[in-house]
Design goal:
By secondary structure, the chain is of the alpha/beta class. The chain has helices spanning 7-12, 30-37, 50-53, 65-78, 96-110, 122-134, 149-152, 162-178, 190-199, 220-223, 241-270; strands at 22-26, 43-46, 83-87, 114-116, 138-143, 182-186, 204-207, 215-218. The structure holds 3-methyl-2-oxobutanoic acid. The site of 3-methyl-2-oxobutanoic acid has 11 residues, from strand 6.
């Protein structure tokens, strides 16, 4: 049986120290969690991307702590032997008090192994310190932070200019110092993400940030092309389950139709 990772092991997982890259995928439901639990996948993220891909919201800003708790609990029930990280939704960690209340609620109810939050402002560093001291392992997340999409003014690659690159390096170090056991780098310029990865002693997990991070995370629904729209350009889907499922349903519907029309014909002949 697969052995669940620990934060102690994850912390050491640096590619430059000879470890293989960590593999992480998102998941939002019990059945897919059971399936992923039966693979060699290292980490599952119950991302607030569930707002987009499961709930059909425009942005992740709309996701609530109640919704996250329901989905994270379902995933953890299916993924008993995989390290599961739950996302803290927008607005649930805007003060130390709310962060403690919401994190303890999500962590206790869902039974996930860790939580993730976006950003590295000084007040967030204080929150990370406090949460880790409380016993809740925290994964950081910098670069493109979708919960701030309205503040950022869109989805784009971060760290292309030297000023923003310096700021991201400082943020990464500050998150490590605050106690994060790993950091997601989302849409961070590839050379910069390599530099940050080499500099830190905790692993970086990239998405749309090149190939040289200590791990990669992708949205399962993008990887399997489960939705009607094409996934973001950095994710090359391995199949098109949207089309495959649609073909099966179309086939089923037309078989049912021809079955019921042949039954109707038989009825008419009997009369
Ligand atoms: O919510 C999410 O799926 C994420 C990943 C994109 C890192 O935060």
């Amino acid at each position: 049986m697969k052995k669940i990772l620990t934060t102690k092991k994850i912390r050491k997982n640096k590619v430059h120290r000879g470890f293989r890259p960590l593999q992480m995928l998102t998941c939002y439901d019990y059945q897919n969690a059971c399936m992923l639990d039966n693979t060699e996948l290292d980490l599952i993220l119950v991302g607030d991307s569930l707002g987009n891909v499961i709930l059909g919201y425009d942005t992740t800003v709309e996701v609530s702590i109640e919704e996250m708790t329901v989905f994270a609990s379902a995933v953890k029930r299916g993924a008993k032997n995989t390290f599961v990280v739950g996302d803290l939704p927008f607005g649930t960690y805007s003060t130390l008090e709310t962060a403690l209340k919401n994190s303890i609620h999500l962590f206790q109810k869902s039974k996930v192994e860790a939580l993730k939050l976006e950003g590295a402002h000084p007040y967030q560093l204080e929150i990370i310190q406090r949460l880790t001291q409380t016993g809740i392992p925290i994964m950081g997340h910098i670069g493109l932070t979708p919960q701030s999409v309205h503040q950022l003014g869109g989805y784009y690659v971060h760290g292309k200019k030297s000023k923003t690159a310096e700021a991201l390096k400082k943020q990464a170090h500050a998150l490590e110092e605050a106690g994060c056991f790993a950091i997601v780098l989302e849409c961070v310029e590839a050379n910069l993400s390599e530099e940050i990865t080499k500099d830190l002693s905790i692993p970086t997990i990239g998405i749309g940030s090149g190939t040289t991070t200590d791990g990669q995370v992708l949205v399962l629904n993008d990887l399997l092309h489960l939705g009607p729209l094409a996934p973001p350009s950095f994710c090359k889907p391995i199949t098109n389950l949207y089309q495959i499922k649609k073909n099966y349903i179309d086939q089923y519907l037309s078989e049912q139709k021809s079955l019921s029309s042949s039954l109707n014909e038989a009825e008419v002949t009997l009369h």
